[in-house]
Amino acid sequence: MTEELGKTVDHESPEIHEREHHVVSPRIYIMILIALLVGTAITVWASYVDLGEWHVAPGLNIFWNPIVALAIACTKATLVVLFFMHVKYGTKLTKLTVGAGVFTFLVLVGMTLSDFFSRAWGRW
Amino acid sequence: MSTTIVSLPDQSTARIPKMNFISKEKGLLSWLLTGDHKRIAMLYLVSITFFFFIGGALAGLIRLELLTPQSDLMATDTYNKVFTMHGIIMIFFFLVPSVPATLGNFFIPMMIGAKDLALPKINLLSWYLYMAAGTLGLYTMMTGGVDTGWTFTTPLSTHYVNTNVLTTGIAVFIAGFSSIFTGLNFIVTIHKMRAPGMTWFRLPLFVWSNYAASILMVLGTPVLAIAIVLVALERTIGIGVFDPTKGGDPLLFQHLFWFYSHPAVYIMILPGMGVISETVSTFSRKRVFGYTAVAFSSVAIAVFGFFVWAHHMFIMGISNYSTLIFSLLTMLVAVPSAIKIFNWSFTLYKGSITFETPMMYTFGFMGLFTIGGLTGVFLGTSGTDIHLTETYFIVAHFHFVMVGGMLMAFLAGVHYWWPKMTGRMYPEKISQLAALITFIGFNFTFFPQFILGTLGMPRRYASYPPEFQILNVFSTAGATILGLGYLLPILYLTWSLKYGEIAGNNPWQATGLEWQTQSPPLTENFPEIPIMDHEAYDYEWLDGQKEKEVASVG
Amino acid sequence: MEAVETHQHAHPPYQRHHFETYAQQNDATNFAMWLFLLTEIMFFGGLFTAYLIYRNWYYPAFVSGSHQLNIPLGGLNTLLLITSSFTMAMGVWCAEMRKKGALVLCLILTFVLGTGFLVVKTFEYKEKIEKHHVPGFHYSLQSFLAPETDEAATAAHDKALPLDMARHTEVYFSLYFAMTGMHAMHMIIGVAILAFMIVRAQAGAYTTGHVTFVENFGLYWHFVDIVWIFLFPLLYLISRH
Amino acid sequence: MSHISQVLWQFLVKWLTDFALYPPEASKIAPQMDALYFFMVLVSLIGLTIVILLVTSFSILYSKKRHPVAVQIEGSTLLEATWTIIPLGLFLIMFVWGALIYFRVYTPPANAMNIYVVGKQWMWKAEHPGGQHEINSLHVPTGQPVQLTLISQDVFHSFSIPAFRVKREAIPGRYTTVWFEATTPGTYHLFCTQYCGTEHSHMIGDIVVMTPDDFKKWLASSTSGASLAQNGERLFASLSCAACHNTRPDARGPNLVNVYGTKLALSSGGSVLADDAYLREAILNPLQHLTQGYAPIMPTYQGQVSEEGVIALVEYIKNLNSDYRVQQTTNTTELLPESVGSPQRPAPAEKKSAGQGMVKQ
């Protein structure tokens, strides 16, 4: 939004708009499709492999499997958002909108979980 | 020197412009199928007024019942249904759409110099969704009502009541989509439809505050929607997301519910704050003190508003550490409101103040909102919250904010923009009287409730220990006065539609773009798209304009 | 007040009266679609929050519940959806390039793949109904208390869950049905709109240079795809080793 | 007319005699909370006065009559910073002060006497450790910290004692606690403040505060014969808990003697404090809270033992400090017909020994 602030609405002619509007070539789409399919294959494969866990502290173990699965899912989602949904070629406003959505989502999840995870903590 | 700024055209020759958005097309169908944001705003105005009076009648019943300690006017279950429907109607069918969907719908495009909202069909759809939801809500009320409280607390709402939770849930769900569409439309319009020269920092503060409220609508409402869907699924097929007997956590529902419903109070109050910024400036003939601070405080409220919801749950068994964080963040969200109040006060400084009705309501707003806001701090402070929450203190607090704040702001706005919307003035003297009656009645009604709450009287009680009676009698007496105060405007405003004085383009000599065109406006708002070449609230520019006009006519 | 020089050039027929330029209209509707997707993120956000909490609380129940799902079917659905996302993206490209025939083909492919997803989902649901894994009155703990009687559980080498944990599989299936159900709802709406679009595209409505509708629908379709990209590992792939 | 004035007169008298701005301070925390409350009232009054003074004085000084032409002022960073920082500072003081009180109210001292409270639509049931039951009333002594362990059987309720300035929700499925130390004998209101259905407004009762001597007398006069722990012991026996939870070397379950208050290592890793909430969970959802070194064989008692029954069991385990008592219950177990351990075994319906209504039928 900071970029938008202070800027007037553009009154471009459709021609200029046409030039700015980036048309993604089908080759990129095919590459993304392949990447997504490979990603799916890797997730399924990775779920059958025990990736072990990381003992951070007694009682606090981090399992790698779900983290890997989520990381792959996030990567796939990012690819879709950036290329299929043209965000990579979109305006700052579009990027900001996506960012705002992800941010609010994280606020909802994070702040709610903060309650659930700190309930078991010892009392003062 | 006269003590008003009203500058009406010569009444003997003045005419309502022949071509305007009302006269353009005739017939009911032209209204029901309109895409014109002004007509949709009028549709909204009529419908929310209707729901306001239904909600108000229910409030009257509540106050009557509480006149005596016993539950003698109605049985407890009836009372529970009455306060539930009062809450649902007032929140979802009046407060949330009140200023945005009527005044915002009408004036945001005009203020930014656009011909319409970006998505007129979505705007109309939003009204239809609202009406569908409202009708469903009324149908629910007629066919047995619902007694969960407007908060739909699980497991009460899912397993322990036998009333129309499902249909009410659907009604609220649909109303939620109506408000999502309104908010979405505003954001798009404000981003993409501003006239040439209308930079972000030339926007009237009303637009800023509606923008902030729209962000909350778009991001918050869906979470309420999913919470209601889960409640409905739990009631119908018995899934176990919130059901403690199946391993669910009912507090999760509270989290999801308040994730929307706390920002919802900012959805309700922010547009009202926008109205106050407009009226304070106009009636003191001065640019709002610290424009940027007021603009950014709206956005700050919107952003912080998402971080504080669990302060509704301090005593509900959330973790103590969560309480700590949410209480701290609540303190932070209180600050922007304080900034606004002081900035408005200092707008008066060295102004040239007149006291027309909108200004009277504005003063009422500033006083009552200050009380409402400060008592909110009592509840955000985790220690005192233990004693004060779930009592009449909290009832008084949010009525000070919602009724004392938002409703006052709404009435200020309706009076302020009435000449623009209808082309006619409301009668000044009687409306000033109404403002005064409202203020007095309001304080009589809700101030005793602070004391009641401190004494410990719980909310949502149909009967109460007899020692609380006297303060309740005061409250009920005040409610009678308040009711009168709300009846008067509807009477004289309707009267003024036909008999009011012709208002002319700019009766208040205000600076907003909406005042620089005819009243009522044309369907496309401006004969030609305006170019904004001055700051917001630039009264010197306005004087210059007037001189130019005089020069060109003379 | 001055007024801006009104645009003298003729507006394209699909430009609505209240917009100054077509670019403005296109930008505005595109932005509106993104905002709508924002609400969708938050809508599913509530479900994901619930999922994360209960998965942490009732991990063994989530594992056993997840083992009842069919990975080949889920994987097939993932492939269908990803491919349909690709054909949709290609459809937008065809519309932009004004290739009518190719656009119709892409839309039909997307429609078929989307419907295929729903058909597979129906089979999965049917299996759950038959095994009484739909939460509610008929919910059966058989597969979790006695995994040896259950094919899927045996295949995954599940051990019998103790009763208290077995009961919490109902929470897993509540979330499974709520999440995939909401997702399927979006798919059904999407497929319905696709059918409408195929007819319109056949009539040449989207190959005139006015591609906003196809573009925005594409955004919606990709969003639904993204939701599934997360649902698949979260629901199907819990502790398969 | 005279009739009306009489009513009004009575009204006025009543008001003046009963008039109060805040409820009596009958607990140790009450004056502390009131201090914060009145500090906040003071700050609010000052704030409100400033706003009113500003608005009225500006309205008078700069009304159009006196001040026909407005002077345009852009703003003042200094002033704005002032009214940002001062309220923020005050709010932060309130936050810290409030948080201190909050933690005090919800952190019971170690020497507190524990009373269990079960909320259900629409009554409060209190269980004293001595076995005294109360409905919609609670007797407590002065000068002794009292901890309430609350739970709800159905919906959310909220246990509120305005005179003590404490309140806590009783929620289904989990224990919550609150504590207070009463200071002044008398009878005070007990309210349910969380809306809980049709008879919500009738879910009220009395808190009777007594001197320690009177309280002892009351305890003696209202005993039901068996203490809560004894009820728990009977239940422990009838549910055959001792078949596993005993002191034999080959015991299948952990020994429960002196387990309360210790740190237990869980088989899932991590450790947990064996408090009331843990014991309750371990009875109802044993496998989620399995102690390290034991096989997951304990059946769940969810749906078989009522909340009161769980409370009795918890109280019994809490007071369990000698092996002898467990062995006693083992002997009773042998009288029971069926072996233990199979998950779907219905609870034995020995009403006599299980205490009234503690085992769900």
**CATH homology group of chain B:** Cytochrome c oxidase-like, subunit I domain
Corresponding CATH architecture of chain B: Up-down Bundle
Q: Give the proportion of residues in helices of chain A.
A: 55-70%
For the secondary structure, the number of strands of chain A is 2
Measured between the Cα atoms of the first and last residue of chain B, the distance is 24 Å
- Tell me the count of domains of chain B: 1
Number of beta strands of chain B: 0
CATH T-level fold name of chain B: Cytochrome C Oxidase, Chain A
The number of helical elements of chain B comes to 16
The arrangement of helices and strands of chain A along the chain is: HHEEHH
Shape of chain B: globular
Regions with little confidence, pLDDT below 50 for 5+ residues of chain B: none
| Overall mean confidence score, pLDDT of chain B | 92
- Top-tier CATH class of chain B: Mainly Alpha
Largest interface: B-D, 99 and 90 residues
What's the alpha carbon Rg of chain A, rounded to whole Å?
21 Å
Please provide a written account of the structure.
The complex is a heterotetramer of chains A (124), B (554), C (241) and D (361). With 124 residues, chain A is mostly helical. Helices cover 62% and strands 7% of the residues of chain A. Chain A has a domain at 23-89. Chain A has four helices and two strands. Chain A has a two-stranded antiparallel sheet. In chain A, strand 1 and strand 2 (60-63) form a beta hairpin. In chain A, helix 2 (26-47) packs antiparallel against helix 3 (64-84). Mean pLDDT of chain A is 79; it is low at 1-20. Chain C has a single domain (59-236), classed as Four Helix Bundle (Hemerythrin (Met), subunit A). Chain C has helices spanning 22-57, 59-67, 71-96, 100-130, 142-145, 151-155, 163-167, 169-202, 212-236. Chain C is elongated. In chain D, strand 2 and strand 3 form a beta hairpin. Residues 333-357 of chain D have low confidence and may be disordered. The termini of chain D are far apart. Chain D is elongated and about 95 Å long. Chain D has eight helices and twelve strands. Chain D has two domains: 21-67 and 75-225, Immunoglobulin-like; 228-335, Orthogonal Bundle (Cytochrome Bc1 Complex, Chain D, domain 2), CATH 1.10.760. Chain D is 37% helix and 18% strand. The chains are: A mainly alpha (124), B mainly alpha (554), C mainly alpha (241), D alpha+beta (361). The interface between B and D is large, with 99 and 90 residues.
